[in-house]
Amino acid sequence: MRSYAILGTGAIGGLYGAKLHAAGFPVHFLCYRDYEVVKTQGLRVDSIWGNLHLTDLHVYADPQKMPTVDVVIVALKTTQNHLLAQLIPPLLSENSLVLVLQNGLGIEDEIADWVDERVLGGLCFTCSNKRAPGYVHHLDFGKITLGEYRIDQQPSGITPKLEAIAADFSQAGIPIEVLPDLLLARWKKLVWNIPFNGLSVVLNATTDILATHPETRALALALMREVQTGAAACDRQISDEFLAEMLEATVQMKPYLTSMKLDFEAGRSLEVEAIFGNPLRTAQKLGVHLPQITVLYHQLRFLDQQNRLNSPQ
Amino acid sequence: MRSYAILGTGAIGGLYGAKLHAAGFPVHFLCYRDYEVVKTQGLRVDSIWGNLHLTDLHVYADPQKMPTVDVVIVALKTTQNHLLAQLIPPLLSENSLVLVLQNGLGIEDEIADWVDERVLGGLCFTCSNKRAPGYVHHLDFGKITLGEYRIDQQPSGITPKLEAIAADFSQAGIPIEVLPDLLLARWKKLVWNIPFNGLSVVLNATTDILATHPETRALALALMREVQTGAAACDRQISDEFLAEMLEATVQMKPYLTSMKLDFEAGRSLEVEAIFGNPLRTAQKLGVHLPQITVLYHQLRFLDQQNRLNSPQ
User: Fold this and answer.
1) CA-to-CA distance for B1 and B56, rounded, in angstroms?
2) Quick check: A295 and B219 CB within 8 A?
3) What is the ipTM of this complex?
4) Other CB atoms within 10 A of residue B251 CB
5) Which residues of B touch A296 (CB under 8 A)?
6) CB neighbours of B163 closer than 8 A, spacing ≥ 6?
7) Candidate from B203, B216, B298 with C-beta closest to A219
8) What residues of chain A lie within 8 A of the CB of B303, using their CB?
9) Consecutive 10-residue runs of chain B (313 residues): their mean pLDDT?
């Protein structure tokens, strides 16, 4: 059985790590502030897939004490990614993979250097929050789409690595789909994340209102079109039908506060660079300007900085 | 001496009407909600030009009872401009002028039909608030720039009408400058109003912060450039130096809440159409898309509507 390390035992790492552990995989959890709670009281996951309370975990506060593993899962907030250069290399043996479960663009590029391109990316369509230290609440959805990174940015196709990881996740009861083109998958996820994460913070609104009010619906669609333009600059085609489906799905969803809005309300750093800055810079390098996303980017960076000035942490 | 009607005895109409009255011009003030207070207690203006308390005014609650005048001054919020078709025509005699003291674009076009093109526009560089019914506080600045409207949108040059009105205002102690091109003056005022009115509401910030924080400064400049593009579509050239000067002047100004932000906090309608919608539509008709101003337009219309849903009035 493949062994796993979970970097970041939060809403995503806690949920998927718990599922892998419960299915019998050796899983090693890295915690920072939550270490004492998880060590003494275990990890509690209230989930639509059934509740778990796991007390027999391998938990670490010190990454130096973690063993090398077959798969390192990166589930930190992207705002913590400056830590990865220290965290990941000691966990790698000769054929280890890194699986990045984060939103946004440009995440895998740096990591790929350390593992000789053995990097997968997974996009989580999951509504899950960390309620308290060692306590994750998984409210809805949960599927992962998985793709393989290539330094040349070309589609990998369906590879044996993808199939192996997908088999482990399926065995653990996690819905997973393998995709031949990670970069396309990342741009498609941005079709939702850019308008809804961004506008939820700037306009202080839930997803249902943003998707139905005529002004924000028009604006969300305009922003989606710019994501489509950015993807096209990277030779990835996203159809108009896909945009319309994403908008309609959001109308049908329960009203959510997005993860960025939850971070904002808690005074935490926003994932502005991964979700907005990197796509803008990627397009810019290819000579494509995305003016409306740029407005949102400046607004979010401003609000993020003001928010943390006013916040205790 | 020319007689004046003031439509809207608020921050602008109250200030300039009081100055004209104090200089001896016959001035007729239209009030709605404030009628009883102004009738019984007079109009109080605390001003950097000296305080006034005027109790001997011609005040009207019913526009039907007002006499015809030589000059009708429009000083309502533009959100009330649907009332003008009823208010203005009864006040006109054969050679009456209309002077519009409002921000934004496209204000004079409808009015011009009723007075056979005898319409002037004045832009007020004034920091003035209505503190309470019949009580205006004029904190800073106060100059008016005055131009003449032409249906063909061409520059009028300096006309006798402009010089006559400017002479009255000067006599009343109001700093005034006549300009040969009203449309250029309106676009130049938008260079400031679009970024600072818009961002102050969306980002809940004062002008000094918006002009100095790197994110909002970059965004303000990008929005100014789109105003410049819109003006160019109307054959009006605004220099890069002018944009830089406006930004620098805003850094140097005392920290202000913009008029749009004050309206927002009071739950009043925002002047979104005059300041954002009309410039966007004007440019659009000429084949020019202004994407970043469009973002702000949708955001403001959304916030305006949500704000009034939640507001008692």
Assistant:
1) 18
2) yes
3) 0.93
4) 12
5) 295
6) B178
7) B298
8) 203
9) 97 98 98 94 97 96 96 97 95 96 93 91 94 95 97 96 98 98 98 98 97 98 98 98 97 89 95 98 98 98 94 57
- At B50, list the tokens: 């000296």
Residue B114 corresponds to which tokens in the numbers above?
């009723």
Q: CA A119 to CA A111: how far, in whole Å?
A: 7
Cα A268 to Cα A56, A201, A294, B213, distances in angstroms: 30, 12, 22, 20
In DSSP notation, B61-73 reads S-GGGSPPEEEEE
Q: How far apart are CA A121 and CA A98, in angstroms?
A: 8
| CB pair distance less than 8 Å for A305 and B213 | yes
Rounded Cα distance between A296 and A230, Å, is: 15
Q: Locate tokens 């790929």: which residue?
A: A112
Dump pLDDT digits (tens) for B249-290.
999 988 888 999 999 999 999 999 999 999 999 999 999 999
Rounded-to-integer distance, Cα B104 and Cα B106, Å: 7
Instruction: Flag whether the pTM goes above 0.90.
Output: yes
Q: How far apart are CA A50 and CA A143, in angstroms?
A: 15
User: Does A212 contact B at CB distance below 8 Å?
Assistant: no
Query: Residue A52 forms beta bridges with which residues?
Result: A45
Answer for the pair A118, A161: CB distance below 8 angstroms, yes or no. yes
Interface check B284 vs A, CB under 8 A: no
Q: Which of A203, A205, A298 sits opposite B219 (nearest CB)?
A: A298
Least CB–CB distance from A301: residue in B202, B215, B301: B215
> Which of B225, B273, B299, B309 would best serve as a mutation to test chain A binding (most A beta carbons within 10 A)?
B299
Q: Does A288 touch chain B (CB under 8 A)?
A: no
Q: Which amino acid is at B246?
A: M
What distance in Å separates residue A305's CA from the closest CA in chain B? Answer: 10
Please count the residues of chain A: 313
List the beta bridge partners of residue A176. Answer: A144
